Amino acid sequence: MKVAFLILTYKYPEQLDKLIDIMSIDEFTFFVHLDKKIDYKNFEFISARKNVSFIKNRVEVTWGSFSMNRAITESFKEILEHDEYDYISVITSHHLPVKLPHEILNYLSENKGFQFLNYIPYNTENYWWKRCERRILKYSLIGWKIPGKYKIEKIINILSPNRKFPSNYEVVGSPTSLFLTSDCVKYIVNEFNKNSDLIKFFKYVWGPDEFIFATIIYNSKFKEKIKDCLVYIEFSDENNGHSKVMETGDFDTIKKSGKFFAKKFDPYIDKEIIEMVNDLRNGITEFN
């Protein structure tokens, strides 16, 4: 079993190095996509690790825009060219494993062939969709680099009817933490290459990475073998679209989640929770 981890990052090189260090086993290879606008020199020391490659075709990422999708799919292409992997995962440097690397590897081996992701069907009664429905129905110009783009966006959305999805796909949504088979990743790359209507639609969606990958998988043969996401993530209206930064008060919830990873951790906001999760993973259980 060989697993490639695509790690998306733009800051805190020491945190990224620590993540790779605690995850390093022979079966895991790490590919780092560093936001193109970030100076590579600050991260160069990590490239000395034998199990780490930096993505060459870097993308300048604007949070909430289609550029995140481009960063992921361009990275997928390089990973697929590098070697044959049983699984390709998408995480960030703000993730932490809650369990040991070999536990993660064993779980993937026991469930080989399944895709692990969140997929929430379009349902206005669902909390996630109540918060996110507007992102599908209205145009977003967050990826534009022109003055006054938000005024233009507002005018377009006042004058235009609600957007209609361009295909017979059923739209689903999910935070972007993925563990996918290589065959599934190849299928996604192919859809990006050939399905121009789908790509055009999502270019004007805010935070399209939270929809497009899950939607492509959910409307394919891979739907029959989907299992729940391996990552604990918490959202709330208070965080303005961002996932919640984990703090010490979240420890019991993380512990009881049964997940293999959690997101997101920031040592400048709460360093203690990072130490607590590291102790949990290593079998120290005095925290209740």
Strand and helix map with partners:
Blueprint lengths: L2 E7 L3 H11 L4 E7 L17 E3 L12 H16 L4 E6 L2 E3 L3 H10 L4 E2 L3 E2 L5 H11 L11 H11 L12 E2 L4 E4 H13 L1 H7 L9 H7 L7 E2 L3 E3 L17 H7 L3 E3 L7 H11 L7
Helix pairs in contact: 2-6
Task: Describe, in plain words, how this protein is organized in 3D.
The chain has 288 residues and is an alpha/beta fold. It has a single domain (3-281), classed as Spore Coat Polysaccharide Biosynthesis Protein SpsA, Chain A (Alpha-Beta Complex). The protein is 36% helix and 15% strand. The protein has ten helices and twelve strands. A five-stranded mixed sheet has the order 3-2-1-4-9, sandwiched between helices. The radius of gyration is 19 Å and the shape is globular.
Largest beta-sheet characterization: 5 strands, mixed
Quick check: average pLDDT?
92
Straight-line N-to-C gap: 34 Å
CATH structural class: Alpha Beta
CATH superfamily: Spore Coat Polysaccharide Biosynthesis Protein SpsA, Chain A
Strand order of the largest sheet: 3-2-1-4-9
Which runs of at least 5 residues are low in confidence (pLDDT < 50)?
Answer: none
Radius of gyration: 19 Å
What is the number of strand segments?
12
